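Repro case for the chain-ordering regression, as requested:
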Amino acid sequence: MPMIELSGVTYRYDHTEMAFDLTVDAGAFLTVIGPSGAGKTTLLNLIAGFERPDGGRIVLDGRDAAGQPPAQRPVTTLFQEHNLFAHLTAAQNVGLGLHPGLRLSSTQRDMVSQGLAVVGLAGFEDRLPRQMSGGERRRVALARSIVRDRKILLLDEPFAALDPPRRLEMVALVDALRRDRGLTVVMVSHLLDEVVGAATHAVFVQDGRILAAGTVDDFLAAPPVPEITGYLGTRPRPRAVPRAAKRG
Amino acid sequence: MNSRPTPGVLLPGAGAALALALLVGGALIGLLLAPEGAAAGRPWVDGYVLAVLRFTVWQALLSALLSVGLAVPVARALARRRRFAGRALLLRLLGLPMVVPTIVGVLGIVAIYGRSGLLNEGLGALGVAARLDVYGLSGILIAHVFFNMPFATRLLVQAWAGIPAESWRLASQLGMSGGQVFRLIEAPMLRQTAPGIAGLVFLLCFTSFSVVLVLGGGPPNATLEVAIYQALRFDFDVARVVVLATLQVAVCAVLVGAAGRLARPMPVDQTLAPPVERHDLAGVWSRALDAVAIAAAMAILALPLAAVAAAGLAGPVAAVLADGELWRAALRSLTVGLSAGLLAVALGWGLVSTSRELRARYYRRGAADRLELAGSLVLVVPPFVVGAGLFVLLRPVADVFAIGLILVVLVNALMGLPFVIRILGPPAAQVAERHLRLCDSLGIAGWHRLRLVDWPLLRRPAALALAVCSALAMGDLGVIALFGTPDTRTLPLLLYHRMGSYRMDEAAVTALVLLVLSLLLFVAIERGLGGDADD
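-- result from build under test --
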């Protein structure tokens, strides 16, 4: 059953005319790859409701999303940066997912603590963002998406600034959340490598269009369009070739 | 462009812009429709008007050149020498003239450079017969340098901080001398920044009022603002006012149009780039040059203020403080200052909160810029013209002298508006840029957004804006000179009258009271409302 459906969605930005047709099944983990400026973030912004399409239809969880403000869509987003308010504690940042004015009941406060515990930050309630590492700040943002309890989780390269091991750890955490809670995940990333094992599907975006769509395995086995090879490069997958062989 | 039908966020800006349009537009219409305006029996521009225009331009040009010319070595010394005794004091002194009431600064300048001032005493002791006279062009220039050199220095220090650290590292690796650094790195930066700063100082001096009123010393030495005041106050010559105001608006509009750089953000604090090891500073000449620049800046700023303090303390303190008139005037000044400050911040917040939405949510950069430009309108339509217009407009329907203080608040709020927009605009835009999407996605809007996001992040710039505007309005001797009556005298006007009637002892104490109250008001708002220095 489709959770996200974009049909004939168009959007003009500056002089680029973007057009998206996309279906994401419930429970899928879709990764969006493509060069910078291709429209990956715009695609996510359209789904989240930050941008209004000029034409076409967006259906989320069986409901037409037209006219639905971002906060009412079944969507929660992790941005590239500034996911947290620097002047609010971890618990307050998570609590905003339950009430936009932070008026929380004691049950809701417990939910906040549980959310933090799920992402491995039990006891971090009173920490300010600047007292946490980059990875921990992303976990707080994930904890907020947990308490918001929306069916769709959008990630706009939120882990790009982390080191590779930390990045894989966060993707694994997102994947675990997806399986436990039946989420539908759409994640923008630059490389397929970092989502292998977690992502089920992939689309390739360039010049405001989706040029190819398929399973991650399809993409890895044989890139469906030559542009992907151009983007990813012709190098063999790192895992297939021992590191030493690349030298010399 | 795609725009969303959620106009709620645009209302504050629309309201503020409408209020501005009514105030300024109403004033201009009032001035143009004045019955006396049509029946002028002499040429529009006569010798007197031309003489005033010539003097206004000439003194503003010299003031701008002197202020920026002096600011360059001071800013350079501050950028080069990061550790010397009194550096913190100098940085503090550079911020002071913004808060010191003009009339108080002028009194201090008279005490130093006047006929019987410190400088002449010193010259006399050295056997020099020539006596300096502070009244006239020289005094105006000294005062304009006192008020604008620090401002220019702060802007230039910021410009110096904008030079990338790599340039300095490269310079030391290549073994550049101080002179070569200046020619190859600093001079090109100055060519980009100094003209804009000089233009801003020119504009401030072009519309200067109190300095010229007190130090002008006679009819030929008047700016257009002073001439407008005199035409209204003494001759009630509205036709002349219209001509003078039109000239002033025209020249300012040309200037503002020419210097699009004026809208650049004003440095809010004295933050400097992380220090970079400099290897071109050890030479004897470069040390001497910096030392002279620093000492000169200290003297220019500190001496008049010290003179005000000394003269005030030496005066009949008890008698003046026991005078009820002083405290009634002080209370009026505080009320005027706070009301004008609050109104300016309210109007400015309306414009800024809407312009940042236009920018971040609707991608309407042009509309946002125009909205903020509306707030800087008083740079083009100087406050005295607005005051004069409102005066003429309200004359038939109300006793202008009875509502004089309200007009003073309105005009001072307008004058503060550009400061509010410059101080509050950039941080407010940054908050929106960072958090708009997050707020939208979590449904944080309206009151919640103000309380949880904007207030904690913007209280410091908001407090600074309120403090600056309130202090400026409290110390203002502009429109109050037009509307003030013995019953509605503010502290600056009281001081002006005491100076005018040669009660200099009382004036000295009054000046010190005004200075202390202005500083207290500024510090109380900035610290009290802005909270402790945190992140």
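Ordering looks correct now. Residues 235-248 of chain A have pLDDT under 50 and may be disordered.
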